[in-house]
Amino acid sequence: MIIEVFTFGDFDIKINKKSVLEKSNRANKKLELFKYFIAYKNKKLVPETIVEDLWTGDEIVDPKSALRTQIFRLKRNMKKLGLMGDGTCKNSVELSFENGFYIFHSGPNFIIDVDVFEENIRFADSIKETDSNHAIQKYSEALRLYRGQYLAENPYSEWIYPIRNRYHRWYVQAVLNLMELLKAQKRYSEIVEMYETTVTNEPYEEGIHIFFLEALIELKQLKNALSHYNYITGRMYREFSVEPTPALKNIYRRITADHDGNRITDLLFLGRNLSEDDKMEGALYCELDYFRTIYNLERRKSLRSDYTEFLGLVSVIMNEANISKQDRERAVGSLELLLINSLRKGDVFCRWNPSQILLLLTNVTEANLQLVEKRIQKRFKNTVDPKKFTIKIDFQPITAINPFIT
């Protein structure tokens, strides 16, 4: 008889592949006590610590007595389920009280997913430099066990947090190690498949996204790579106000670079290739690095141009205290949308920081700047609550010294 305990994702106990837990039993204190003993298997546990971890101070009158009662009931239920025998069965569990400590032991046929998970990762770590194929197999076996966070159905049990975080760190590092090994063997399609199964468990780990983007580049799926780059960098900025890191910016350059430079082409094909992602609608929004490139190009051109080019800085001012980051982001996002429609197709802008936007206006006279400012101010007031947010706009010729751009 094989007894399997699943702690990743929804908790479950299976005997010979069949679950023995009823839905009505999943939320009671006895089951949480069983999870606790499984988490601290083979460790000496002081009753006071168990009570402190599982019960709040005012939840029960006599915590120690309640613990003894719950343990008695737990043992009775374990015997009923076939998990606890007379101590001679090799797959049974034993819960004993020795010298003031509770100790939970299990037999060799009592299999807990976290034990197998940890064993496979430790083994893979030890051989990844010498036997990459075997390491790939063991990492893959470990990751298949990770069906979600450790004891995910207990989101508010504080005693679980350190254990949950520990296994999550192991999971993320195993994913990165496996992707590194697959990359070394140029198994890019497997990296893509792996990403699709792991991103739900770890949506914000930059290294995982970088491996995924590199795999898409190698598979010549550049449009998918660019779309994913825009998605993940936008999401990170919206939720954490984090700008793309140098590593991600390097990936962006690789995506937008010409990976087929030796191909013989004609001007018609080249024109379509260069413009296929630009809908030519409104002002151009771009990353700061590319804004800097355009800025310096226009600054060079201004030295021999009859027109004047201006650099603008639009600052979003918060007029009330305690405005949330989400509200600020929505206000700046609304500003970006109206700038696309308020500026000309030849104008360029980018996000400078969470509350400021840089503008580059070309072929415009100084007299027209006031009209531009009034148009932006009016549309912003009509879009965003002026009691919460206003904007301040400053312009100066790009021929002036702007060290923070160059």
Secondary-structure-based class equals alpha+beta
Spatial strand arrangement across the major sheet: 7-9-10-8-11
Global outline: elongated
Mind summarizing the main beta sheet? Answer: 5 strands, mixed
Question: Tally the helices: what do you get?
Answer: 14
What proportion strand?
A: 5-15%
What is the chain-wise order of helices and strands?
EEEHHHEEEHHHHHHHHEHEHEEHE
| Secondary structure tally: strands | 11
Radius of gyration: 30 Å
> How far apart are the first and last residues' alpha carbons, in Å?
71 Å
Roughly what is the average pLDDT, rounded to an integer? Answer: 85
Q: Which regions are unreliable across 5 or more consecutive residues at pLDDT < 50? A: 258-270
Helical content band:
40-55%
Description:
This protein has 406 residues and is an alpha+beta fold. 50% of the residues lie in helices and 14% in strands. The strands form 3 sheets. Strands 7-9-10-8-11 form a 5-stranded mixed β-sheet, sandwiched between helices. A 4-stranded mixed β-sheet has the order 3-2-1-6. The longest helix is centred in the middle third of the chain and has 24 residues, at 161-184. Mean pLDDT is 85; it is low at 258-270.
